[in-house]
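During the no-cost extension, the postdoctoral fellow (Dr. R.K.) reprocessed legacy sequence entries with the updated structure-token encoder. One reprocessed record is reproduced below for audit purposes.
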Amino acid sequence: MAGNNHKSGPPGMSRAGGSVPCVITGELKGKIDRVWDAFWSGGISNPLEVIEQITYLLFIRRLDERQTIAEKKALLTGTIEDAVYLTSQYDLRWSRFTNLGPDEMFRTVSDHVFPFLRQLGDQFGGGRSTYGEHMKDARFTIPTPALLSRVVDMLDDIPMEKRDTNGDLYEYLLSKIASAGVNGQFRTPRHIIQLMVDLMAPQPGDEICDPACGTAGFLVAASEYIREHHPSALTDATQRAHFHKSMFHGYDFDSTMLRIGSMNMLLHGIEAPDIRYRDSLSEGASGDAGAYSLVLANPPFAGSLDYESVAKDLQRTVKTKKTELLFLALFLKLLKPGGRAAVIVPDGVLFGSSNAHKSLRKMLIEDQKLDAVVKLPSGVFRPYAGVSTAILIFTRTDSGGTDDVWFYDVRADGFSLDDKRNAIDANDLGDVRSRWSARTTTERDRARTEQSFCVPKSDIIAQGYDLSLNRYREVLHDDAEHRPPLEIIADIELLEAEIAAGLADLKAMLR
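Re-encoded structure tokens follow.
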């Protein structure tokens, strides 16, 4: 299940987690919808391919804007720094080829612009991972000049200098991914991502990682949280450099997701995030051990892996082939001491009876600091999957520290729990936020009959490190007054006498 790759969450969630209209207008949404329909009628029916083609074009436009900025600076300095295009390549710029007729534009983009994209290498973005690097296998699959012309016209109308509009436009596109991906991955709903980010409250000095980043939903939400709650991170030169170049880290082994996730970050105003190709459970992640202060993730947890392909240090931590347990071990490995994590796991992690399940839960409670288990409704990932999940929140300490574990039973997330997922009034997420901040004070006094409560570490140990909420919930039964047994027996005897008399009358009638 899960992974914030392919499951469409409701668009237009505010940073506080409630529903708000998208910044993009109904008119722009209509244009996107019409272009989307044109792709389908033109023979491109895979929504990921549609978004990928739009992503390429957005990137090409961004390159032209970068060149324009460099040219304006050159008016003052006399030289163009970080030029994207040579003078001989100016015909490949967005501002040039978009003025061509449909047929000529199609030939230019197909025969020249996309080959140019593929050879960019690490020219754009700089650092360990670049947008240009993710374009090295770019394929142009828009089938007709007419469709290309329509898409270009739509993108040309978007004011790209407005970060909110750019971000909402791309989120609206991503919301159209309505099909499951491979390896049990689905795009995490935006309001669940926002809840997890709000509970973790990222700080300007954090190094934030999502080892199964997909479309980069968690990283985008974390960046927006920093912008809103810590505006100085964008005004102080040192913090601004950290924000744009070294705060956000994401891995994925799907090159399409890397392109889409990178563009999502770019359109949300992150200049050079570290978005890299990596199978997170392989040996490749070893170099990042202890590198991050915050992990936010919804990793894929469908099926098992080839045990031989799993990193040896993860095997030493937990002997299993189950993806969900290996990812938990990976999160602990990636966190630096004092680092914290909020991650989605299937319910089986909470109560699974295998040695691997039990040892990992024991490790979280005894060796690290388990902070909370937030049980999510089973319909959160509908219509794509009905599996029950929970958010695990923990801190790496390497020296224990678990005291009371806070449990919350989310029964409503603001949307119907059927396949339609229509907006409804019932919503516990605001209460989750407010009670989270009180988990070490007043929440400790809450009875276990309530929707949230704390459980001492000793009680969890006594239950064999079981973390299922129902193991600790107390159910109140209404007191019932029962009549005296002899009185009940007397009534039964009376009923039997009436039945016997009725049978006797029936026999007499039949003679």
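The CA atoms of residues 317 and 463 lie 22 Å apart. The chain has three domains: 26-161, 183-471, 483-511. The remaining legacy entries will be reprocessed before the final report is submitted.
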